[in-house]
Amino acid sequence: MSEAILSMARPITLVQPQRLEIGGGAIGRLGEWAGAYERIFVLAMVPTMGFVERIGLKGVVETFIDIPPEPDLPAVEAALAAARAFKPDLVIGLGGGSVMDVAKLVAALWDSDQSILDVVGVDKILGRRSALAQVPTTSGTGSEAGTRALVANPETLAKMAIESRHMLADIAVLDPELTYSVPAAVTAATGIDALAHCVEAFTNLKAHPLIDGYARMGIDLVGRYLARAVENGQDIEARTGMMLASYYGGICLGPVNTAGGHALAYPLGTRLKLPHGLANAIIFPHVLAFNAPVVPEKTRAICDFLQFRGSDADALRSESLAFCRRLGVETSLAAHGAPADELPIWASEAHAIRRLMDNNPRPMSVEDVLAIYRAAMA
Ligand SMILES: NC(=O)c1ccc[n+]([C@@H]2O[C@H](COP(=O)([O-])OP(=O)(O)OC[C@H]3O[C@@H](n4cnc5c(N)ncnc54)[C@H](O)[C@@H]3O)[C@@H](O)[C@H]2O)c1
Ligand SMILES: [Fe+2]
User: Cα of 135 to ligand 1 centre, how many Å?
Assistant: First the structure.
């Protein structure tokens, strides 16, 4: 049986938010939808708290902004405690992936006896009492589309993944105007995160033709619009294109998920404290090149969308590194302060993230991972 037929036959489940509002100014429609709710708990960050007014909420509103980027266990627990005191019937996540992931957990757990550690893994959450609305303000994670949340564990330095249909949004609002204020560096890094979601799902061992379609659309949009969004943050067409690319990437994360690239990026987040998007941007060119020999046709399609001309792995690596650098990304791990003597520990840590590594189209040994980290130091 050919590879394509095998992947076509694999059963998958695709869920999406029940309602989507998309377009410039769409945030105002959330206010109308939310009219039925009385106690509304909004999760945000300082750069996004100003958007609360634009929703036009009518009930009793509490806004919680004490969420750090890349939230860890204590940060989620603090948000949960505030929600428990407030007792919301609607939870709104108004921010990037950091805020939306916390909103998912708050909506599902504020009225539950389950702790966060109880629900790590797949389908452990027993239910959800309040409604959930997600409003992304970065174009990267696609968290609004899906059922997964990531929380850093400060003790193990690992990112814990929690997945449950009870964390799916009732409504997601894609309003590109909310991303006008995202700084160029964050636009670039989060945009490459969206690209990595699409590429890693597209070239995944578990790839599926239906998800391939979303992945292709997402990669195409990144090729057309990421540079424009970085150059001019007010470019509504580019901002809209990137918001859709991020959403498509989010769809890719559900039934297929990422692979080696994200596994290698995680230690950069937990140990070097690099933001998720930046960590992925640094790793992306190396894993694209590493995987190219075993997924040549799909790699060629990716190159066409991104206008890379290279025909071998080395050319691919240098062209994709140049692509990231043109967007302003510092791609050298050494420049970010990575200690060379710690790389072997990072390599075994990344190699042990089997939930992602087992999806990679080309098997990666610990030595392969280490070689990539060493190449990324330059
Ligand atoms: N649930 C998922 O499927 C999924 C997928 C990928 C990543 N993640 C998680 O998402 C988190 C990263 O999310 P992110 O990349 O969106 O970054 P983020 O949410 O941490 O935001 C990055 C920075 O941009 C700021 N910001 C956000 N919106 C802004 C705006 N409109 N204007 C100005 N500044 C703004 C934030 O305050 C923050 O400082 C990580 O914790 C990662 O693990 C989750
Ligand atoms: Fe990601």
Answer: 12
Among the bound ligands, the one closest to the CA of 104: 1
Q: Which CATH number applies to 19-179?
A: 3.40.50.1970
CB count, 10 Å around CB of 161? 16
What integer pLDDT is reported at residue 4 of this predicted model?
A: 56
Instruction: Give the pLDDT of residue 209.
Output: 94
The pLDDT of residue 5 is 53
Where do the structural domains in the chain lie, given as residue ranges? 19-179, 182-377
Name the pairing type of β-strands 19-22 and 131-136: unpaired
64 vs 46: CA distance, rounded Å: 10
Mean pLDDT for the stretch of residues 135-142: 98
233: helix, strand or coil: coil
- Closest ligand 1 atom, residue 71 Cα: 41
Q: Whose CA is nearest to atom 39 of ligand 1?
A: 69
CATH superfamily of 182-377: Dehydroquinate synthase-like - alpha domain (1.20.1090.10)
- List, as one string, the DSSP characters of 91-138: EEEEESHHHHHHHHHHHHHTT-S--TGGG-EES------SEEEEEESS
- Cα–Cα distance for residue pair 281/322, rounded to 1 Å: 11
Helices (H), 159-273: 184-202, 209-231, 236-253, 260-270
Ligand closest in space to the Cα of 200? 2
253 CA closest ligand 1 atom index: 3
Contact 226, 276 (CB under 8 A): no
Backbone angles phi, psi at 41, to 5 degrees: -105, 115
